[in-house]
Design brief:
The complex is a heterodimer. By secondary structure, chain A is an alpha+beta fold. In chain A, 41% of the residues lie in helices and 13% in strands. Chain A has a 7-stranded mixed beta sheet with strand order 1-9-8-13-10-11-12. Chain A has a 6-stranded mixed beta sheet with strand order 3-2-7-4-5-6. Chain A has a two-stranded antiparallel sheet with strand order 14-15. Classes of the chains: A alpha+beta, B mainly beta.
Chain lengths: 712, 65
């Protein structure tokens, strides 16, 4: 590890705003073009409408960018906010940050929800939200020091490149005595050289005496940080308690916190055991239900999945408390100590790997045909250290491998590498290349949408086939669930504002397994309520896992079991206790609906946000190839005959593939209509004037964007 | 005798998870169970036999992500 040499180039003192009822009502704006540091008040009207977290991020981004702004323009803003409930110690999942920016992958706003202590420390240091704009002319480190009430910008010429060493070095540099007071946001060399750079948010694990990390993975937020030449943003703050948010009703806050934490403590060991295995329990479950991406989402299961799930990682994970926020009872942020990589710059050393979670196992394991827990760990480690999103990495390489196996690209294009499914060493080599920005990795690091263009133009690959198998929508790579048999989840991905990430809606089991939503209207209702409620977590600085990954024992006896309304009520109580705003469950949906529609219109402002952008690759809907169809022939034959009433006698498989495709694509378009209607949007997917008026977001600039798109 | 969600339940030879669930009230959201600590998903309910003295928890909902 290199020694830290920082040269202070700007320092300002400030009066730290008190946190009252979860809010400081202050925003911090740092423009790297001239190192301007500005602190503004936040209007009560903005607070009431945008709530915090993602809502604040989007509002301040909207002010910063024009409709023509590209991700690497100086005015693009990287925003981080924790929300009014964020930073409540002991409340399960109560310490999240939400990051937004204009994405290098999509050209539209991206949002990413991440653990670690940065968001709460930043808020307790006096700021509900920070925006970073401009570009530095040299590498810089920004310090927000809530203990000394100082903000500093440093020239950072000689720091470690990788996030792993960089966060550790800065943590010790800024508070050697109490490293727990520090949280660092970093990217890494992979963020500089790819379009899917992630951000590592740290916290100091006092039990293990080491810096730990969670990632704001999706959409290239790390790439934007690197483009601004920000090596790190550091927050420093001291002791945190339940009083730190100055809640309106401390006793009520203690009661709801204790109640929810106790339930998770009691029930998680009987249910998903996330305190032991994280989210790796999903690997065997998805595999058994044919939903585990395998070979670029071609299939949904593989016998090898048995050795990359919870049964293995339970024994590999280091024992100890693994909450990414103080006192979280879910405590799912597991890691592996003394791991020794067998490739790359850390080869032969001993490192601590933070992860893997389900998404990484599926994306970088089964989806690539890699059924080896240790290789997945190594991919996980390097993606974090390099600052690259494991989901986009895994889904992108899966696409490359299928192109390679179909000879759309050859070893001539890959620098001699055999990139067939299952090739572990060349997968790792490709990741090292991506991080360095050289070789074939430089192309892969641009993401699937651009790869499709490059492969077609330079390598003469078939664009139609690549459109079918390239698992991206809106430019963002899919997260790791097979959706072929769940129309609702196809909507959950295709109609998600930022692209196909499951944090808006995860309806596979309710739809596919339980047949809980048989009609288009049922599905549309689910694709209204679930995205709205899930959005609310991002407004408030919370994790969604405690809501429905641990379920009350009497949940099945309630009116709407899928919504886990007992917990929804607790969240309403939580919001009331902190903010003093008397809140019922329906109010949470209303809060989200305003921000959700604002984000849709933000997409429109950036040139997207209409029906054509809610398109899916056909692989998300059904079998693209004869091979896929014939892998599950009974399923598809039965659908053609029983569901669609076809006589398939004499049809060859290619004809069946085409017939099924016609039906499924038609269904998806019908789903779009139903969802747009339910959301109060036009059939082109644009919120109507009545909708924005009802939600109170009919600001002049919003109406102007709508008018430009024909909505009067 | 087996334990299902912390309650005693009569065990029968060759009893499968599917057999068990037929006797349980309102298990419409149960697509996964833990059988002696190991996950078993609904496609395997019919083929998975329950040993005597097994400890079973019905996972009420799979929420994903």
């Amino acid at each position: 590890m290199g020694s830290v040499k920082l040269n202070e180039i700007k320092a300002v003192s400030y009066d730290r705003a008190e946190v009252i009822k979860g809010y400081t009502d202050r925003s911090l704006h740092i423009n790297l073009a001239d190192n301007d540091i500005r602190i503004d008040s936040i209007d009560a009207a903005v607070r009431d409408k945008f709530i915090g977290g993602k809502g604040y991020d989007l509002w301040f981004m909207w002010q910063a960018v024009k409709g023509t702004t590209k991700w690497n323009d100086p005015e693009n803003a990287l925003c981080i906010s924790a929300g009014p409930l964020g930073g409540t110690p002991g409340y399960p999942g109560g310490g999240k940050s939400i990051v937004t920016t204009i994405s290098p992958l999509t050209g539209a706003p991206i949002d990413s929800n991440v653990g670690g202590y940065f968001g709460p420390y930043k808020k307790f240091s006096g700021f509900d939200v920070i925006t970073l704009t401009g570009k530095a002319d040299q590498d810089v480190v920004i310090l927000i020091d809530g203990i000394e009430s100082r903000i500093k910008i440093f020239n950072a010429a000689e720091l470690p490149d990788n996030a792993y060493d960089l966060s550790d070095a800065l943590t010790r540099y800024f508070d050697e005595e109490k490293p727990v007071n520090i949280s660092v946001v970093t990217a890494g060399p992979g963020a500089e050289n790819t379009f899917f750079g992630c951000l590592n948010f740290s916290w100091y694990d006092a039990g293990r005496k080491r810096v730990r990390y969670k990632q704001a993975g999706r959409g290239g937020t790390g790439t934007v940080l690197a483009d601004k030449r920000i090596k790190a943003v550091v927050a420093r703050y001291g002791a945190v308690s339940m009083k730190s948010n100055q809640p309106a009703d401390l006793e009520a806050l203690k009661t709801v916190t204790k109640t929810h934490a106790k339930e998770i403590h009691d029930l998680d060991p009987k249910q998903n055991r996330m305190a032991l295995v994280g989210t790796t329990h999903l690997v065997p479950i998805m595999n058994d239900h044919d939903c585990l991406p395998t070979h670029n989402f071609k299939f949904g299961s593989h016998p090898g999945a048995a050795v990359i799930g919870e049964a293995v990682y339970e024994h590999i994970f280091d024992k100890g408390f693994d909450g990414c926020w103080r006192g979280c009872a879910v405590a799912c942020s597991h890691g592996v100590k003394d791991f020794s990589p067998f490739t790359g710059p850390f080869k032969g050393t001993r490192v601590f790997v933070d992860g893997p979670e389900y998404e990484t196992v599926a994306g970088c394991g089964s989806n690539l045909g890699i059924f080896d827990a240790h290789t997945i760990l190594e991919i996980n480690f390097y993606c974090d250290a390099y600052g690259m999103d494991t989901i986009s990495v895994g889904t992108s390489i899966g696409f490359v491998m299928e192109c390679f196996e179909n000879q759309l690209i050859t070893a001539e294009h890959t620098g001699g590498m055999d990139l067939s499914f299952g090739n572990r060493l060349n997968t790792l080599e490709l990741i090292h290349q991506m991080a360095r920005g050289d070789g074939f990795g430089a192309i892969v690091g641009k993401g699937i949408r651009r790869m499709k263009q490059i492969f077609a133009e330079k390598f003469k690959a078939d664009p139609a086939f690549m459109q079918d198998i390239g698992m991206e929508s809106k430019g963002l790579e899919f997260s790791e669930y097979i959706t072929k048999e769940s129309l609702a989840q196809q909507g959950g991905y295709g109609l998600a504002l930022k692209g196909p990430q499951h944090d808006e809606a995860w309806l596979i089991f309710l739809d596919m397994v339980h047949n809980f939503m048989p009609t288009f209207e049922n599905k549309a209702e689910a694709l209204h309520w679930f995205p709205m409620f899930r959005t609310w977590f991002g407004l408030c600085g919370l994790c969604k896992l405690p809501w429905n990954d641990i379920v009350p024992e009497d949940n099945k006896d309630t009116k709407e079991p899928a919504k886990v309304m007992k917990h929804v009520q607790w969240y309403a109580d939580f919001f009331s206790a902190v903010t003093g705003r008397k809140t019922m469950p329906d109010d949470l949906i209303a809060m989200s609906e305003a921000v959700y529609n604002f984000q849709r219109i933000f997409n429109l402002k950036m040139g997207y946000g209409t029906r054509e952008h809610d398109t899916l690759p056909y692989r998300a809907m059904g079998p693209v190839t004869v091979e896929e169809y014939e892998s599950r022939p009974d399923r598809y034959d039965t659908q053609l005959t029983d569901t669609y009433g076809m006589d398939i006698t004499g049809m060859d498989t290619a004809a069946k593939v085409a017939a099924l495709r016609k039906e499924r694509e038609s269904q998806y378009e019908q789903l779009k209509d139903a969802v747009y209607d339910r959301r109060g949007w036009t059939r082109n997917g644009i919120p109507t004037k009545e909708t924005v008026q009802r939600l109170g977001i009919d600001f002049p600039e919003v109406l102007e964007v709508l008018a430009e798109n024909g909505i009067q | 005798m087996i334990q299902v969600n912390d309650q005693p339940f009569e065990w029968k030879p060759d009893m499968t998870i599917a057999d068990l669930l037929k006797q349980m009230p309102d298990v419409r959201f149960c697509s996964v169970v833990r059988l002696n600590g190991k996950l078993v998903s609904s496609p395997r309910f019919r083929e998975t036999r329950i040993p005597d003295n097994a400890v079973i928890h019905l996972l009420p909902l799979v929420a994903g992500g």
